[in-house]
Design a protein that fits this description.
207 residues; mainly alpha; Lysozyme; 9 helices; 2 strands
Length: 207
């Protein structure tokens, strides 16, 4: 009888351990997408696909629309190229914002929101001349707006946006690793009100 009880206890322990391991892995997979996991990239449709109803063309609407395009609004995700969080920041951008602990960043929604605002402020400073010169103009049939410029800088960097605007879009087409172009962001994120964001040369995150 004693041997039977020990055997049953051992079986129960194995079952419970397997179940715990399964749920632990399932829970973790909800937060971190593994490098070999499938990552869905929305196909460009040519219209204002990422407009978020209820927020209007405010800064809140802008950042949530960017977030939906980048990660479907999920904070705790890493894509197949290693871009992190709700707004899919790269390591180089995080370094510019003086964020070195990427694991902490991944699990801090507050820090991710502050980082997005700081990056918008920094890009607005980097591109202030282009904003003054090109907003209201049309390049390759695209109406150039401040929010479109800031969104495009989030996608491809301020330097790429400068080259696109200065050469009137006649340079080589700039796309990210998934094929999304500067033109698509200029169109999709046009006409949001970003007056709330002040241009800042040295963005500081109060953590």
């Amino acid at each position: 009888m004693k041997k039977l009880i020990l055997t049953l206890a051992g079986v129960l322990f194995i079952v419970l351990s397997s179940a715990f391991s399964f749920w632990e892995k399932k829970e973790r997979s909800h937060y971190i997408q593994q490098p070999d996991a499938e990552y869905t990239v929305e196909q460009y449709t040519g219209d204002d696909s990422y407009y978020i109803p209820g927020y209007g063309k405010t800064f809140l609407g802008f950042k949530e629309a960017i977030a939906f395009k980048e990660s479907q609004g999920r904070y705790h995700i890493i894509n197949t190229l290693g871009y992190i969080g709700k707004y899919q920041f790269g390591v180089s951008t995080l370094s510019t914002l003086r964020i070195s602990n990427t694991e902490y960043f991944l699990y801090s929604s507050i820090l991710q929101e502050k980082a997005f605002m700081a990056n918008c402020s920094y890009n607005k400073w980097l591109l202030h001349e282009e904003i003054n010169q090109h907003v209201g103009s049309t390049i390759k049939g695209i109406q150039i707006t401040e929010s479109g410029i800031i969104a495009a800088a989030h996608l491809a960097g301020a330097g790429s946006v400068k080259r696109f605007l200065r050469k009137k879009g006649k340079n080589k087409r700039i796309v990210d690793a998934y094929g999304t172009s500067i033109e698509q962001y200029l169109i999709s994120f046009a006409n949001y009100d970003l007056t709330y964001i002040e241009p800042t040369r040295f963005p500081i995150l109060n953590r």
